[in-house]
Amino acid sequence: MKKLINDPKSVVDESVQGFGLAHADLVSVNPDPLFVTRSGAPVPGKVGLLSGGGSGHEPLHAGYVGIGMLDAAVPGAVFTSPTPDQILPATLAVDSGAGVVHIVKNYTGDVLNFEMAAELAEAEGVQVRTVLVNDDVAVEDSLYTAGRRGVGGTVLVEKIAGAAAERGDGLDAVTEIGRRVNANVRTMGVALAACTVPHAGVPSFELADNEVEIGIGIHGEPGRHRIAMENADSITERLLAPVLADLQLQSGEKVLLFVNGMGGTPLSELYIVYRHAAAVLAEAGLVIERSLVGNYITALEMQGCSISVLRLDDELTALWDAPVNTAALRWGI
Amino acid sequence: MRTTLDTEWAIAWLQAAADAVAEHRVELSELDRAIGDGDHGENLDRGFSAIAAKLREEAPATPGAAFKLAAMTLMSKVGGAAGPLYGTAFLRAATAVGEATELDPVLLAGALTAARDGVVLRGKAEPGDKTMVDAWTPAVDAAKSAVAAGADVTSVLAAAAAAAEAGATATDPLTARKGRASYLGERSAGHRDPGAASSALILRAAADTA
């Protein structure tokens, strides 16, 4: 496996350093403990928005630090949660006194580390609220699992809650908006080929040339089942069916359709998926008000994609349209 | 017969635990590769090596201070779920023993109980969920029984370590209901839980140094 790196141990540090140099107008990088903050943070009077998680999902999360989205991103080692000694100072750095919202993807390690950091921040007098993202319909949500994983919906939560914070919403209101997005978004992914974690050096799982894994997460963890390779339209239908079933959308409802690349699939293929997904939604009588297509939450160089559907209301649509200026999402500025 | 354990033991325990984790690093990661993401040995080794390095620089004044040093180091160095879980365990143990310089059997069993309760509170796992709780709970029960029977500190830890090892082995057939292994559902059966295995190693180190 060839990778464009210098040393597996320095992948995250060197990548974040490069990110900071490339986007010096938008962000500042704190090297030790490692975290990224929006230039000029904390913004007086504004609720701080912080997210973080294992690295390897770029542009998530540092790519979303900037005006109208995150105030801070805390990168952990590749596919490993960051630690409280990173999350705490990042939280303190973006608190203007209005409090900080942590956006946390639902993985045991992330939940525990953010929970500890939130307790420590509260002890230092910072109000912290948590929005847990768990939009992955591939995992059964029951007492017998750690619950659904946070995947594609995370990008939408960060954009929309970010816009709410930017327009001046208070701590509870921003939290409510974030939770509302999470409650109305569902995602399902597919992998055509695995990714290789730099320090592991071998692919995280094996897929034969004629196989795909349906219901893949963003770390190469197992999905729902493995099937023989099919064409793009059939796979699109397989991904959308559980998403639509779970959301229980009614004809006439407005949605945002998000086709996300996992890092190793060309944009042209993502548009082929989008094309058929749009047709399936139209047939179900749904109105696609907004769309997003591209590599926004990845699993290193994994081949595959995920489809997210978000049920929109007028307020969520307006917040989606609000100006944003980050390394990976930029409009209206 | 040893009536109490002191700071010297607490330091020796943490160093022995670091040695044990380093020695079993690959084995722990192999267990994790089967039902998780394959980094438990690496992550824990990073944390315990850092503890050993700090202990070489400065000797804590009490067992509680040694536990607190371990807790803070594990929380900042390990990441994943294991960092907060072990960090909380050691932090609760530190609180339970307070400023005491000597730990008698009752205080020792109290520290183990507090550590286990911390893991349960943080991870919200119950016995039988195929997690480190399945090593800690039998260890605490065995330690309490030993105290009730009038055992000395060495025997209390020996009973706890043996029960933790049996508890870890008993996770083999279980289906995981917490943590990343739970995504596998029934496919997690037939593998030992890595957290239970590392807990047994750490408690064995405690017994061996007493």
UniProtKB/TrEMBL annotation, chain A:
It comes from the Bacteria. Coiled coil: none annotated. One of its GO terms (cellular component) is cytosol. It is an enzyme of class 2 (transferase). Keywords: Glycerol metabolism, Kinase, Transferase. Pathway: Polyol metabolism; glycerol degradation. Its EC number is 2.7.1.121. GO terms for molecular function: glycerone kinase activity; phosphoenolpyruvate-glycerone phosphotransferase activity. Pfam families: Dak1 (PF02733). Signal peptide: none annotated. The keyword Transferase applies. InterPro entries: DhaK_1, DhaK_dom, Dihydroxyacetone_Kinase. GO terms for biological process: glycerol catabolic process. It catalyses: dihydroxyacetone + phosphoenolpyruvate = dihydroxyacetone phosphate + pyruvate. Residues 7-331 form the DhaK domain. Homodimer. The dihydroxyacetone kinase complex is composed of a homodimer of DhaM, a homodimer of DhaK and the subunit DhaL. This is phosphoenolpyruvate--glycerone phosphotransferase. It comes from Arthrobacter terrae. The gene is dhaK.
UniProtKB/TrEMBL annotation, chain B:
It comes from the Bacteria. The keyword Kinase applies. One of its GO terms (molecular function) is glycerone kinase activity. The keyword Ribonucleoprotein does not apply. Residues 8-208 form the DhaL domain. GO terms for cellular component: cytosol. SMART domains: Dak2. Keywords: Kinase, Transferase. It holds the Pfam family Dak2. One of its GO terms (biological process) is glycerol catabolic process. PANTHER family: TRIOKINASE/FMN CYCLASE, TRIOKINASE_FMN CYCLASE. This is Dihydroxyacetone kinase subunit L.
